[in-house]
Amino acid sequence: MLKIGLTGGIGAGKSEVSRLLAAHGAVIVDSDVIAREVVAPGTDGLEAVVAEFGAGVLRPDGSLDRPALGAVVFADPERLKALNAIVHPLVRARSAELEAAAAPDAVVVHDVPLLVENGLAPLYDLVLVVDAEDAVRIDRLVRLRGMTEQEARARMAAQATRADRLAVAGLVIDNSGPLEALPPRVDEVWGELKSRQV
Q1: Alpha-carbon span 133 to 163, nearest angstrom
Q2: pTM for this structure?
Q3: Cα–Cα distance for residue pair 196/4, rounded to 1 Å
Q4: Strands of the 27-30 sheet, one edge to the other
Q5: If we measure between CA atoms, which residue out of 57, 193, 67 comes closest to residue 125?
């Protein structure tokens, strides 16, 4: 099994690379998807979040009101730590389950947006960074996600720098160009990953 940590700054195209790797046969373990699953209605995770933050973080249907919770935790670093202390162990446990269920010869790609910020690079055989120039990322966030330039810059500033991400990269996919240039580059990277399997 080859364990890959996939990361990239907002707007770099990490999700598209993840999709293309899945099409090649990679087993994708998506931290964002798992983070939503572990606090779904009826889970111990949601129960723990409500115990910590109160029923005000719930929607009328009993699901987590992410904007309401975000307003609390992003205004107070201590509250964010409390949330992370609940969610992160659950995400790690579920990620480990999914990895363990993969075939012995699988390429398991852990899609982890905050891999660098949380110092997780040593957990993987290789870190794959999807990179794009800041101006390109800002343009994508404004054009495709409807952010203002100021919002885009603030989101980027809250993440690791490009230099920090590139410093832990075993492989880099430069996605500063047009979308049609990405699949051939991912094909190359897939060949490189398969060649590294023992």
Answers
A1: 11
A2: 0.87
A3: 11
A4: 27-30, 107-111, 2-8, 126-131, 171-174
A5: 193
